[in-house]
Amino acid sequence: MKVVSVLLLCALGSYVAAEDSNVDLANRLQALENERVQLEAEIQLYREKAKHLLDIFRDVLHEDEAPSSSSDQPITKRQLACNTAASQIAFHARLASQKVFSSINEDIAYDVVHTNIGNGYNSSTGIFTAPRQGNYQLMASAMSTDGNSTDIEMVRSSHYPFTICNTHAGTSHSSMGLCVAFVTLEENENVRVRHYLHTNQTLAGGKYASFSGHLI
């Protein structure tokens, strides 16, 4: 009887172990199935992305093969150089000799012209006329003679305030003043440099007094 009981217990244990093993195997199979479904979904997504990229690539190839019109032709180096030269505007002039101001607001005609690209500067009047609308850098320098001060300002013909900048050169020997401005000018707008504040002031000439500017 004891032998039979032992055999029954062994058989029951084997059955329970087999059932547990079957449950574990079923769980593993279900997990693998879930992973397979997820991988198939990801593969399909990558296929759609690859197809989209291939369509874009084909469109680019088609555009490259299409004949270009005359307006799409590349610009040659010579054409680029000509276009750049045509767009340049710059001037630089200096005062040939010392000038004594007998009145206030007297224009200064810088009469020695070194550069006048675009022909915007007039050495007879000292006026720069902007050939076209744009942003310009302008500069005027002044140096006083010994014992005399001088004051100059840069003014524009329109757009208040008319004074762009001003500078003062003191009474000490070779005192210098510098007026620098960045300003937007309209086409055909005038800019000039003039003396202001006091009469009988003296502006040193030569290389010390100059008026210059360029299109930025």
Automatic annotation (TrEMBL):
Listed GO CC annotations: extracellular region
Signal peptide per UniProt: 1-18
One Pfam family named in its UniProt record: C1q
SMART domains xref list: C1Q (SM00110)
Subcellular location as annotated: Secreted
This protein's name: C1q domain-containing protein
C1q domain segment(s): 84-216
Keywords linked to the UniProt accession: Coiled coil, Secreted, Signal
Residue ranges of coiled coil: 15-56
Keyword Chloroplast appears in the UniProt entry: no
PANTHER family, alphabetized: C1Q DOMAIN-CONTAINING PROTEIN (PTHR22923:SF116), CEREBELLIN-RELATED (PTHR22923)
Main location: secreted
Provenance organism: Mizuhopecten yessoensis
